[in-house]
Amino acid sequence: MEKALFLDKDGTLIKDVPYNVDPKRVVCYPDIFKPLRMLQKNGYKLIVVSNQSGIARRYFTAEELEIAFSELRKQLMTEGIHLNGIYYCPHGDRASDMQCICRKPLPGMLYQAAAELHIDLKKSWMIGDILNDVAAGRAAGCKTILVDRSQQERKKDRMEDPKFMPDFITDNFYGLTQVITLEKEYYE
Ligand SMILES: [Mg+2]
Ligand SMILES: [Zn+2]
């Protein structure tokens, strides 16, 4: 069984441009490269899990989205980082939409990735910029880190709800390696 980092995309790995699929506007945060490279070297699979309701809203097609994902893969590859999987939820969140099991805060994408890529969820981490990412990770039994770059998400009332409470909060990716490495020594 493998261990993994489940990574939100928008606002976590790349700058959040709502509903963007233009590869020219896929811009990685520069602080992600070193931590991801190091954690990958330490045996973590890197798996993107992303809500993409723009498909349900017909803002873009799955093919257009794939082009944006290819761009992300390419930029990471240039930095020596290989994504082991990309999972996305194409469904919407409006009342008229069919309720799915994969849209975060639900844990469906994490369960699917765990089954397909032989991931031990208990040894894995969910990393994201909003509390819905944290909730998905918690529901799947992962440890969670909120990367709260703007320091706004941590002020939300629902963070007091155990469902949404991250194990750790960091302002950026630099704090991440230390948290995960120290935790590993503690548990194993
Ligand atoms: Mg996000
Ligand atoms: Zn879904």
UniProtKB/TrEMBL annotation:
Q: From which residue to which does any coiled coil extend?
A: none
Say which enzyme class the record assigns.
hydrolase
The catalytic activity of this protein is classed by the Enzyme Commission as: 3.1.3.-
Q: What is its main location?
A: cytoplasm
InterPro entries the UniProt entry points to: HAD-like_sf (IPR036412), HAD-SF_hydro_IIIA (IPR006549), HAD_sf (IPR023214), Heptose_bisP_phosphatase (IPR004446), Histidinol-phos (IPR006543)
Query: By its UniProt entry, which PANTHER family does this protein fall under?
Result: D-GLYCERO-BETA-D-MANNO-HEPTOSE-1,7-BISPHOSPHATE 7-PHOSPHATASE
The protein in question is named D,D-heptose 1,7-bisphosphate phosphatase
